[in-house]
Design a protein that fits this description.
Layout (H helix, E strand, L loop, with lengths): L22 H24 L15 E6 L6 H7 L4 H11 L13 E6 L7 E7 L5 E5 L5 E5 L4 E11 L3 H7 L5 H9 L14 E11 L5 E13 L4 E5 L7 E5 L2 E6 L7 E4 L2 E4 L6 E4 L2 E4 L5 E3 L4 E9 L3 E9 L2 E11 L8 E2 L4 E5 L9 E8 L2 E3 L15 H13 L12
Antiparallel strand pairs: 1-2, 2-3, 3-4, 4-5, 6-7, 7-8, 8-9, 9-10, 10-11, 12-15, 13-14, 15-22, 16-21, 17-18, 17-20, 18-19, 19-21, 19-22, 22-23
Helix pairs in contact: 2-3
Amino acid sequence: MGALPASSTSMKTGASPFPKSAEPSVERSFCQMIRSAFLILAVASLAPLQAVADPPTAHLPMAFEAIIAAGDTLDSVLGHAGVPPTIRAEAALALSGVYDLTDLRPGHRIEWTAASADPASLTRLSLFVEDGVEIALTFDGLIAAQRLDPPVRVMHRSETLTLNGTLYDALTARNAPERFAVDLTALLAGQVDFRRDLKGGETFALVWQEDQLPDGTIAGEPRLSYARLELTDRVLELVATEAAGPIIVFEDGEAVQRSAAPILGARLSSVFGRRNHPVLGGVRMHTGIDYAAPVGTEVSATGAGRVTFAGTIRGYGTTIDIDHGGGVVTRYAHLSEIAEGVREGMRVKAGDEIGAVGATGLVSGPNLHYEVRVDGRPVDPKDQDALPEQEIASADDLNALATWRSETGFISGTDGERG
């Protein structure tokens, strides 16, 4: 075999492919590149990490809402949402100046706003309670609370209808306040028995006022101005010239009674007579009538008289007695409080506020126990002779009677009915 070319003799295993004159510079350049790469990585590992940008909505105000359920409190709702105890305590303290937090009821609404997703960064909190009232808290510096009452429009309404069933059914059919069925039954108890005396076909007229909120809902309680029941043998009318004042009862145009119900809009929960006692058990004599109503509901004097007792009686709880003269005394028991200024010896008029419904004494729940005693003996408060006639109708009462008769289209069948 022929000899290899001379150039092939320089190719040995592991030999550099570069000319000997170029080997040192190439190797140095390659090593410098490796060192530079490691140096860059080392420097990069020592540099601080750049913060990741927050989502665009992270610092925007966030709104929250909760509906009060049975057993809830403001503190429990906010605590469940993560609001710190110190902020909850400060909010409750500020609210206490304008609202009693024990009055929160199921269905009330709480709204609050935080500056970010952090529940500790509250900027505003509002309670929406009865009748569209808002209790607002602001957290700009010192926490401040204010009560915001919505504007209301006084609406005058009247209805004339024919009774072909219960008074309650007739009222609800016309979208009239069903609570008037209770009020009128109590106010006219001495003149008519709504269960027995109504045969069907009687004409009933009603005039009242109510407060309407901007959204059309009705706030507060309706205020009775006039009612008329046309029976086959007589006409009964009620006139109230003041929302919280006494009510005059007319029979065939003659004023026969001037009094006030001890409480309006309440359910008659127990009548006069023997009954099973709700707390002690067994059949016992019930010496008055009971009206079931929420704690704090206003209680009024049913007639003019003098306060002879204002304090606590065993079993009755917080109690007020009023002497009306002629041996007649009315008692108002289980009260939560006695109205400011009411004390023994003071004179009161029919319709004057004297206290508020409570659950003091021997009771199973909040109610007003109303009792009438004649010469120390309990009598049925619904007896028309239980309270003596004390005042006759005033000129204002007679003018109001004529006005409401005209508005409801009533024409008297006899002359000189106002006697």
